[in-house]
Amino acid sequence: MKGGLAVFLHLAGMLDAPPVDLSWCFYAGEEVAREHNGLLHLWEARPDLLAADVAVLGEPTGGVVEAGCQGTLRVRVSLAGLRAHTARPHAGRNAIHRLAGILTAIDGFEVRRPVIDGCEYAEQMQVVSVEGGVAGNVVPDRATVVVNHRFAPDRTVAQAESAVRQLLEPFLEPGDHWELLNAAPAAPPALDDPVLSALVAASGDAPRAKLGWTDVAFFAERGVPAANFGPGDPLLAHTPGEHVGAAELAQVASVLDAVLRAEG
Amino acid sequence: MKGGLAVFLHLAGMLDAPPVDLSWCFYAGEEVAREHNGLLHLWEARPDLLAADVAVLGEPTGGVVEAGCQGTLRVRVSLAGLRAHTARPHAGRNAIHRLAGILTAIDGFEVRRPVIDGCEYAEQMQVVSVEGGVAGNVVPDRATVVVNHRFAPDRTVAQAESAVRQLLEPFLEPGDHWELLNAAPAAPPALDDPVLSALVAASGDAPRAKLGWTDVAFFAERGVPAANFGPGDPLLAHTPGEHVGAAELAQVASVLDAVLRAEG
Questions:
Q1: Chain A: residue whose CA lies nearest to B128
Q2: How confident is the model over B57-87, as pLDDT tens digits?
Q3: Averaged pLDDT for residues B20-41
Q4: What's the mean pLDDT in B4-11?
Q5: Which of A38, A137, A238, B139 could anchor a disulfide with A27, C-beta 3.0 to 4.6 Å?
Q6: Alpha carbon A60 to chain centroid distance?
Q7: What's the rounded Cα separation, in Å, for the pair B56 and B65?
């Protein structure tokens, strides 16, 4: 969100006397493991600085309000087998072969698309890693996948984990292991908030759902309505072709400026 | 084959004047990677010491002649995909999900059971390792399995590799990689050899096929008929319960002694 930071710095410099009580929060580590998130560090040290009626996150959204965010969780599923010599595999059970059912089920996951406050979310489920194997002549007794599930704001972490479990249950047996590795809750769109509603109007575009996870969820958890709004194409983020045009920076700055003045 | 070595040492000590021209060959590394195999080292240094009309390998066979041996090969199959954010997986392609077809096909491999010289072989195919994954929020663009195929003596390495390829072909696409990691040929039963035939008769049991790979193939490749015959249950080899009884050691020694005297 370097583009969003540029816009915020520009506005902070321009607005000598902001029309509303305004806090600019610049922090590190918003995309990496939760324990490195600067917003959490700030919250632990000075929660008073984060008191707010509403929050806007400068995530790349192409100058469109992206409402709420989907939650994300990762589970590690480890299947059991029984070792044997590969010349006599029927004396054992191949744990890697057992993955076939799980991979087929997840590949066939039917995307659930709940519409909340007019925004259509799209849940996803993907295997993000797989490992298994003992030796070149051994039927392996363990095979593991990590599954990443992205879930819509109408579900809690527990409900979302339960949905993954329900999909994979037919392929699990005693001796297998199930572990929730990490999870971050979703955030509802909160577009009934008057400031966010004004932001949508000023942006000139219909809002859409944020499909990734962002710190909007941090604010939502603390009762602060929040939305994503910044320059830059989210599909280009983290790619070699990542860029943002000057016109888009100016447009986003202008929209935020207008909303701040209207609220003043 | 510590039991077989014990029998050979016993006979070597007992037979001051062997009734036939006899070479005892004790070597290291018969079960590990081919480059460490002592028989190969000896062959490179002194092939004349391995000149023979027939060879008996002291592998654990429970005192039954196990004829020939199956071949073994390993192929690494690496599937391609396209990276994307797991919140927008349709922008990419999950290479791990693609494994489902391959695992299902191999798990459903129909065991081919050719009968050669009255011995029934049993081909096998097992995935022995799997790996893949980029990061917890990335649709992975690569997933790899290693497949171990055990094949009967009526097929060459090339024919056996082709059989694996044929089974997996429906799941392969341009951009995938196929690599033959290693292979060792099978050996035919060679029970028409008069000495091996006499060994079968003296053992008192019908011969059976050797399903694993052994150095019988080393001799077969060099035109020397060979068979596996030694004390010890092959299903116990390399397990914590590995053992061999004194009676079985004595029986195997007695059979070999009788065959040697009869040939003398």
A1: A133
A2: 999 999 999 999 999 999 999 999 999 999 9
A3: 88
A4: 96
A5: A38
A6: 13
A7: 9
Q: Find the mean pLDDT for residues A83-94.
A: 93
What are A149's strand-pairing partners?
A73, A125
Residue type, B89: P
Distance (Å, whole) CA A75 – CA A217: 20
**Six-digit token pair at B60?**
């654990």
Q: Look at phi and psi of residue B74 and say left if phi exceeds 0, alpha if psi is from -120 to 50, else beta.
A: beta
Residue B234 has pLDDT above 90, yes or no: no
Chain A residues within 8 A of B131 when measuring between CB atoms = 130-133
* DSSP string computed for A164-208: HHHHHGGG--TT-EEEEEEEE--B---TTSHHHHHHHHHHTS--E
Confidence check: pLDDT of B240 > 90 = no
**What per-residue confidence (pLDDT) applies to A41?**
95
Closest among B254, B264, B135 to B203, alpha carbons compared: B254
- Specify whether the CB–CB gap between B232 and B252 falls below 8 A: no
A120-163 pLDDT per residue, tens: 999 999 999 999 999 999 999 999 999 999 999 999 999 999 99
Specify the DSSP element, H or E, that contains B66. Answer: strand B66-67
| B264: Cα within 13 Å, side-chain hemisphere | 13
Largest CA distance in chain B: 80
Q: Is the pLDDT of residue A219 over 90?
A: yes
Lowest mean pLDDT among A6-15, A24-33, B149-158: A24-33
> At residue A246, what is the residue type?
A
**Length of chain A in residues, anyone?**
264
Q: CB distance A137–B146 less than 8 Å?
A: no
Name beta bridge partners: B120.
Answer: B115
Contacts for B27-36: CB closer than 8 Å, 24+ residues apart: B30/B1, B30/B214, B30/B215, B34/B182, B34/B184
What residues of chain B lie within 8 A of the CB of A235, using their CB?
88, 91
Write down how long chain B is.
Answer: 264
Strand partners, A116: A119
Kindly determine whether residue A126 and residue B212, on different chains, have CB atoms separated by under 8 Å.
Answer: no
Q: What is the mean pLDDT of residues A223-247?
A: 90
What letter does residue A118 receive in the DSSP assignment? Answer: T
**Residue A100 confidence (pLDDT):** 98
Q: A146: which chain B residues are within 8 Å (Cβ-Cβ)? A: 133, 136
Contact B189, B116 (CB under 8 A): yes
Inter-chain residue contact B131 with A134, CB threshold 8 Å: no
| A126 closest CB neighbour out of B89, B124, B212 | B89
Please report which residue ranges of chain A form alpha helices under DSSP H. Answer: 2-14, 38-45, 95-107, 157-168, 194-203, 216-221, 246-263
Name every chain A residue with its beta carbon within 8 A of the beta carbon of B213.
87
Distances (CA, A) of B195 to A62, B189, B191, B258, B259: 83, 13, 9, 11, 8
- Its pTM stands at 0.88
3-state class (DSSP) for residue A10:
helix
Distance, CA of B104 to CA of B168 (rounded, Å) = 10
